[in-house]
Amino acid sequence: MAVFSNLLRHATVLRHRFTLRSMSNIPENTVYGGPKPQNTEQRVTLAHLKQKHKKGIPITMVTAYDYPSAVHLDTAGIDICLVGDSAAMVVHGYDTTLPITLDEMLVHCRAVARGANRPLLVGDLPFGTYESSSQQAVDSAVRILKEGGMDAIKLEGASPSRITAAKAIVEAGIAVIGHVGLTPQAISVLGGFRPQGRNISSAVKVVETALALQEAGCFAVVLECVPAPVAAAATSILGIPTIGIGAGPFCSGQVLVYHDLLGMLQHPHHAKVTPKFCKQYAHVGDVINKALVEYKDEVTSGSFPGPDHSPYKISASEVGGFLDELKQMGLDKAASAAAEAVEKMEKNKITS
């Protein structure tokens, strides 16, 4: 009897431990306290990225902003999903990235976090959320992780204050990606969306800033719109991965925006801001436009919805009772409409 009691008690303890484990949302092997339970065989972590970089295997990153796109990235096996402040332009229709707020970014972050289980999730710090002080930067980064469900943050800039902010965020226990070259948040200083590193001083500045961000503790650096030789120079001297976007083939990895690489948007506004370096791997926008026009035409002609897309039935006896009830309520017009609908549906079923 005592043996049986001990076995029962042991089984109860094991069952309790398993229940807690399976219901916990505390990561098992995560990046600085990220949002989800993680299986090291399935979830990308900094350790995975370091191994890829060490072996010379290119890192893939895609910028996405919502649940459906995050699911697609997850299915495709993309390494990093960046929730970029470019959502201001791609999703919200602004001409720059400046207007988007931290609260708006958090909505995008949460949606992506619900859809992407495999990639490392990185959230952009939007303009105005980290420039004032290191404390402001840390507070904003904490919100990206705690409220947005991200694993890491990305910040732009080459100024000493941005380097200081990056260091403070890392020291607060948050993983950081730096961003140099064309930094869209600085267009008022840069004079627009202009490539960087095209003269000696600018090229040297790109390399020096990348080194400074590495020294500050960043685990990777995005190089945007710089000549390939400049990116190659930075990549060769850094001990962390470089992720190129319009920076040639010599970076440790590449990033493109989901909508851009799919050829998703055909609106003139988007055509105006679509970067030259973007390769379109599909023309999804054309497919979407064709489908929408076809839908509009079918609704206008009355061919949609037909019998195949009107699946919910009511039996003949129930219809009869329904019509009687309508008539008793004095709703003869409604009864006639229902009876006519039944007749038409039966006719369509015969002819289809």
From TrEMBL:
<protein>
    <recommendedName>
        <fullName>3-methyl-2-oxobutanoate hydroxymethyltransferase</fullName>
        <ecNumber>2.1.2.11</ecNumber>
    </recommendedName>
</protein>
<dbReference type="GO" id="GO:0003864">
    <property type="term" value="F:3-methyl-2-oxobutanoate hydroxymethyltransferase activity"/>
</dbReference>
<dbReference type="InterPro" id="IPR015813">
    <property type="entry name" value="Pyrv/PenolPyrv_kinase-like_dom"/>
</dbReference>
<comment type="pathway">
    <text>Cofactor biosynthesis; (R)-pantothenate biosynthesis; (R)-pantoate from 3-methyl-2-oxobutanoate: step 1/2.</text>
</comment>
<dbReference type="GO" id="GO:0005739">
    <property type="term" value="C:mitochondrion"/>
</dbReference>
<dbReference type="Pfam" id="PF02548">
    <property type="entry name" value="Pantoate_transf"/>
</dbReference>
<comment type="similarity">
    <text>Belongs to the PanB family.</text>
</comment>
<dbReference type="InterPro" id="IPR003700">
    <property type="entry name" value="Pantoate_hydroxy_MeTrfase"/>
</dbReference>
<keyword id="KW-0566">Pantothenate biosynthesis</keyword>
<dbReference type="GO" id="GO:0015940">
    <property type="term" value="P:pantothenate biosynthetic process"/>
</dbReference>
<dbReference type="GO" id="GO:0000287">
    <property type="term" value="F:magnesium ion binding"/>
</dbReference>
<dbReference type="InterPro" id="IPR040442">
    <property type="entry name" value="Pyrv_kinase-like_dom_sf"/>
</dbReference>
<keyword id="KW-0808">Transferase</keyword>
<comment type="function">
    <text>Catalyzes the reversible reaction in which hydroxymethyl group from 5,10-methylenetetrahydrofolate is transferred onto alpha-ketoisovalerate to form ketopantoate.</text>
</comment>
